[in-house]
Write a structure and sequence with these properties.
The chain has four helices and ten strands. It folds into two domains: 15-60 and 72-161, Phosphatidylinositol 3-kinase Catalytic Subunit, Chain A, domain 1 (Ubiquitin-like (UB roll)); 167-209. The chain has helices at residues 15-28, 95-105, 138-145, 171-211; strands spanning 2-4, 36-37, 43-51, 57-60, 68-71, 74-77, 84-90, 115-123, 126-131, 153-158. It is elongated and about 85 Å long. It starts with a strand and ends with a helix.
């Protein structure tokens, strides 16, 4: 299970330190997603973001795929598990800008305020997860950690239930969510009914064997 970790302080690097780290980073890259340092000191590179969304997202219906519930020109559906997106960003891009770019790539119409970006670190056989503030810079974190995703990875999630800004949802979105939840509830109810019906059949069969005349 993920363990919440305190946010680490940002360490400002000199231009020469950044250059050295980028050289070291690029020498360790195995997927050709290298970083580039520009003359103005800004560097660009790639980050991969795991999409771990529990609630359905709203997209333009012309772009949507899979099982969904329709509402006018928009569609609410669940993003497939294990979906990873690669973004090309710069060292000046903030967490909020990264979230907005991700939603744009998936044609998501939801308010970016509904989502949060997390960093996930693996240390001493434990997984530490920390929600990033909107002003942090993901590419800097990627540079400092190196290219290995087992050392640092990024995850997009919804805000926790207690943090959800429900006012950011539109009425059609909420109606779509309710329809999907009702359908899932009915599906789970049918599964439970079938399970207990099977138990009942086995019990009746066992009772019939016990009381059967010898």
């Amino acid at each position: 299970k993920d363990v919440q970790k305190e946010r680490e302080p940002h360490v400002y690097l000199s231009k020469e330190e950044v250059k050295e780290k980028i050289q070291s980073y690029n020498s360790s890259v195995t997927d050709k997603l290298k970083m580039t340092l520009n003359t103005n000191g800004i560097y660009t590179g790639f980050i991969k973001v795991q999409m771990e969304l529990c609630r359905p997202i709203t997209v333009q219906s012309s772009q949507s795929q899979g099982k969904c519930a329709h509402s006018n020109n928009e569609t609410a559906f669940y993003l497939p598990e294990g979906c990873v997106n690669t973004l090309h960003i710069s060292s000046t891009n903030t967490v909020r800008e990264v979230i907005e770019a991700l939603l744009k790539k998936f044609f998501v119409a939801d308010n970016p305020a509904k989502f949060a970006l997390y960093k996930r670190c693996h240390k001493e056989d434990q997984v530490y997860t920390c929600k990033l503030s909107d002003r942090e810079h993901p590419l800097y974190l990627r540079l400092v950690a190196g290219p290995r995703t087992e050392m640092l990875s990024f995850v997009l999630r919804e805000h926790e239930t207690g943090e959800v800004m429900w006012e950011a949802f539109t009425i059609p979105e909420l109606q779509n969510f309710l329809r999907i939840l009702d359908k899932e509830e009915n599906e789970q109810l049918q599964i439970l009914k079938k399970r207990y019906a099977a138990y009942r059949d086995k019990l009746e069969e066992a009772l019939g064997g016990v009381w059967k005349p010898g």
